[in-house]
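ok here's the first one, seq then struct tokens
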Amino acid sequence: QFRKKRLRFGRSRIHEWGLFAMEPIAADEMVIEYVGQSVRQVVADMREKRYAREGIGSSYLFRVDHDTIIDATKCGNLARFINHCCTPNCYAKVITIEAQKKIVIYSKQPIGVNEEITYDYKFPIEDTKIPCLCRTESCRGTLN
């Protein structure tokens, strides 16, 4: 039921690295699970500051629920390379398997070979804006 899709990471026109389909993917299919360490919000906050001090430019922290974050910064899989897009071809969904919450990326539409996998990060609105680089026709201009 959860057959892994063939994916590769490579240079992205959106931002540095991205994740790309190596096979056609139909709409509403599981693409990949976002894997990393499950940590509490307090730990994620401390790690984010530590990563900044260590010069790690990108941290890969994905919120599961109010107090659970998946940190894929140092021990994640290729899903961490999925870029944000204002008109994405995928979406993230939290599912529960054997009482454990997991983040799974599903396709919203058919995805062709070599097409970049994207989803909307849905960051909360904040005063300090993060510029969006997706360059789509309906780009909101910021991630938050």
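and now the second one, same deal
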Amino acid sequence: GCAPAGGGSVPVLFCYSVFARPSSVPHGAGYELLIQKFLSLYGDQIDMHRKFVVQLFAEEWSQYIDLPKGFLVNERCKVRLVPLQIQITTLGNLTPSSTVFFCCDMQERFRPAIKYFGDIISVGQRLLQGARLLGIPVIVTEQYPKGLGSTVQEIDLTGAKLVLPKTKFSMVLPEVEAALAEIPGVRSIVLFGVETHVCIQQTALELIGRGLEVHIVADATSSRSMMDRMFALERLARTGIIVTTSEAILLQLVADKEHPKFKEIQNLIKASAPESGLLSKV
């Protein structure tokens, strides 16, 4: 079994995945020091967005057990870091104070090419009106506007925090990151525009990689091809991104019939776009 160690440090075998590396920690080290040692040994292989559990090899059971509460290293032992396989459910609660709207590339030159473009313009307008009513910051990008034109005239960008040209497909530009850093407590991004499988997908993946929660508005995003759109939404939903609708978003942000802006938001929803078949292709 485990032999008591002399001196100021204790030998520990650190196991992760298929690896096992002998090292040592100070006598009396606890959970935090073990985690630091795992990171120093395996940091380039550990995905910090995963949840982990540290386990200790227990001689009496001849197997690993979850690290006992208050555990301190007093003798030679073997520990391992185990990534949890379970998906941590994203609840997707929205509040105006922690939400930013991203409007992606709703430009004139896309009008003839994008399926149901008229409908997503109509829903995009409604979302931006809702953002103005609720005081939610809006960030807008335009893909290569010199060649593809600016945002369509029907969409009113009054009060937008940023309107930026870009050549990168993702909206996560240095100026966008700087703007997000200036808004205290941002947790959720509501994302819509075109194209679902290119700029929307790449933006969403970059945002969740930065620890933000992403809501994609299915009735306000489209592509030239419905197949591209469908598979992008499926892929994004599997990564924990929330695929939802404009009505669900607006009513979640208001949350209560007694909200002072409820009537105005309700009027926006009543003036909704006609059924286009867009949602049947999710």
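notes on #2: The first strand starts at residue 9 and ends at 16. Residues 1-6 have pLDDT under 50 and may be disordered.
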